[in-house]
């Protein structure tokens, strides 16, 4: 990132490293998936295709991130366990939870048609995500037992509920009949009333699914005489087990013993204090500006694979802008957003209670929704290009205590936009027009100042940098703006009707002019310049 007088705002970023020897678990679960399942007409109580889609996404996560060695999921949730020595992104919680939920969301959208070829994906799915720290293998064992117990209890209840509804009861009456019933009563209800032996239902529904990597022998090539050359490869496999936290299941898989460690005792009872620790989440400081910044993960490679124009691809930038607008429309507490290249910053109103200001919820939902939208809108902006692999974004959330510091943060990002775009414009002109290699272009530009770069563009390429498209030079901003419309009413005559819509602009947000012209964005009367 570029150096500027606004660099000080980085000091407000909080370290969130998960310290060793804690084991890291990233748990994701569907955001309002009850509605999502109704809109997309999932079968009740269990939709096998929907569960297999979740399993396919989880498998893709394990294949993408080698540090994840085990995962367990049911319904609309999945938990991913990292190897105990993992240094993935130096164990920063925000990076871990945002990358996993982003990649999972992108894969979910990309694989939708594979599992539901006859169904249109009507709106982008999004997921919550959080990091759970397990101080020991005993705590991890309790966590896994807790999640599988929830799987069993929830599925048993839902099976009874939907059989009663399909048998003619209203949902309200069915809930009333099941209130306070224990497992034995529910099992008897299913058997006596519907002739269903719960234990004979598919294991995936009752037990959930776990995925881990095992070594398998594969043919990698053939010798001249036709004999195969075999190598051991680690492949993800899905299994269903009655007790994934049992020491017998866990200890019989050598890869899990090596990467995580074994379980020495059986889980007799899940300790309540463990469950409370699994549910605890940090909240952000009240009455501060919350900013969520998302960045494309390895977008240099992504842009090369998808052949984005250099130094700027207008369609790629407009795709980012369109996704940012969708986020504003989805999350009403976001009042302003600024983006450049493969990054976007979203500002929540100062008194926002979005997810009770829980940091992991805020960043996860924003990144997840943005990622899903990016995949869904891809063909709208690149109708001739196939999306070759799932994009992913990492995210972080930072609190700024005053409007001045918030605006300095936004100024920092716009200064960065200008410096990076000017450099990239020079770099790609040298490569494309002068035939220089990338390393030669980097060496040529090393140590040059803004004035020298402008002179290079003018003298060598006849380009006035200040005449380049403003979106490239200043980035994009989106915000809510009120619109007044005059409407004719039969009894009242002409009346004024106000409504809001999101607009996208490209302008200077460093100087006070923009903010003075739009005081309602920050909704503060205090002088900030």
Automatic annotation (TrEMBL):
UniProt-annotated location(s): Nucleus, Nucleoplasm
Domain tRNAHis guanylyltransferase catalytic: 6-134, 273-401
Domain Thg1 C-terminal: 139-226, 405-511
UniProt cofactor(s): Mg(2+)
Function: Adds a GMP to the 5'-end of tRNA(His) after transcription and RNase P cleavage.
Family membership: Belongs to the tRNA(His) guanylyltransferase family.
Enzyme class: transferase
CC annotations in GO: nucleoplasm
Enzyme Commission numbers on file: 2.7.7.79
PANTHER family assigned: TRNA(HIS) GUANYLYLTRANSFERASE-RELATED
Record GO biological process: tRNA modification
Residue ranges of coiled coil: none
Name of the featured protein: tRNA(His) guanylyltransferase
Organism listed in the record: Lithocarpus litseifolius
InterPro entries: Thg1_C_dom (IPR025845), tRNAHis_GuaTrfase_cat (IPR024956), tRNAHis_GuaTrfase_Thg1 (IPR007537), tRNAHis_GuaTrfase_Thg1_sf (IPR038469)
Catalytic activity: a 5'-end ribonucleotide-tRNA(His) + GTP + ATP + H2O = a 5'-end phospho-guanosine-ribonucleotide-tRNA(His) + AMP + 2 diphosphate + H(+)
UniProt keyword list: GTP-binding, Magnesium, Metal-binding, Nucleotide-binding, Nucleotidyltransferase, Nucleus, Transferase, tRNA processing
Gene Ontology molecular functions: GTP binding; magnesium ion binding; tRNA guanylyltransferase activity
């Amino acid at each position: 990132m570029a150096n500027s007088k606004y660099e000080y705002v980085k000091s407000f970023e909080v370290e969130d490293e998960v310290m060793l020897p804690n084991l890291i678990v990233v748990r994701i679960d569907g955001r309002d998936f009850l509605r999502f399942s109704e809109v997309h007409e999932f079968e009740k109580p269990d939709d096998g295709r929907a569960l297999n889609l979740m399993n396919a996404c989880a498998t893709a996560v394990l294949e993408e991130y080698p540090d994840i060695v085990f995962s367990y999921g049911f319904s609309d949730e999945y938990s991913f366990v990292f190897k105990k020595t993992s240094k993935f992104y130096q164990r920063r919680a925000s990076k871990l939870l945002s990358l996993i939920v982003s990649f999972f969301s992108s894969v979910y959208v990309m694989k939708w048609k594979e599992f539901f070829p006859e169904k249109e994906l009507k709106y982008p799915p999004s997921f919550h995500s959080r990091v759970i720290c397990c101080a020991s293998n005993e705590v991890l064992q309790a966590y896994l037992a807790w999640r599988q117990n929830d799987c069993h209890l929830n599925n048993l209840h839902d099976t009874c509920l939907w059989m009663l509804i399909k048998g003619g009861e209203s949902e309200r009456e069915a809930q009333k009949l099941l209130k306070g019933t224990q497992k034995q009563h529910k099992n008897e209800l299913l058997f006596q009333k519907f002739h269903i032996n719960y234990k004979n239902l598919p294991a995936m529904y009752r037990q959930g699914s776990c995925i881990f990597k095992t070594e398998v022998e594969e043919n990698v090539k053939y010798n001249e005489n036709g004999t195969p050359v075999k190598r051991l490869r680690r492949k993800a496999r899905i299994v269903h087990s009655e007790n994934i936290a049992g020491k017998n299941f866990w200890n019989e898989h050598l890869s899990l013993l090596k990467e995580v460690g074994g379980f020495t005792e059986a889980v007799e009872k899940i300790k309540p204090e463990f469950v409370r620790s699994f549910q605890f989440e940090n909240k952000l400081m009240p009455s501060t500006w919350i900013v969520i910044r998302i960045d494309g993960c390895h977008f240099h490679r992504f842009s090369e694979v998808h052949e984005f124009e250099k130094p700027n691809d207008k369609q790629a930038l407009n795709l980012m802008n369109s996704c940012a607008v969708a986020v504003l429309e989805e999350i009403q507490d976001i009042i302003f957003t600024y983006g450049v290249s493969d990054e976007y910053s979203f500002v929540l109103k100062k008194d926002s209670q979005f997810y009770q200001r829980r940091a992991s919820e805020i960043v996860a939902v924003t990144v997840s929704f943005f990622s899903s939208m990016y995949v869904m809108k891809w063909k709208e902006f690149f109708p001739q290009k196939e999306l070759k692999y799932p994009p992913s974004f990492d995210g972080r959330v930072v609190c700024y205590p005053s409007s001045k510091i918030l605006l300095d943060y936004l100024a920092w990002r716009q200064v960065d936009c200008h410096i990076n775009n000017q450099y990239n414009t020079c770099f790609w002109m040298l490569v494309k027009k002068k035939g220089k290699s990338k390393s030669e272009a980097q060496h040529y530009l090393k140590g040059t100042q803004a004035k020298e770069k402008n002179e290079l563009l003018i003298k060598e390429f006849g380009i006035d940098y200040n005449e380049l498209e403003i979106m490239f030079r200043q980035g994009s901003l989106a915000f809510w703006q009120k619109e007044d419309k005059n409407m004719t009413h039969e009894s009242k005559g002409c009346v004024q009707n106000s409504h809001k819509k999101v607009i996208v602009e490209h302008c200077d947000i460093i100087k006070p002019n923009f903010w003075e012209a739009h005081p309602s964005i920050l909704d503060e009367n205090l002088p900030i310049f």
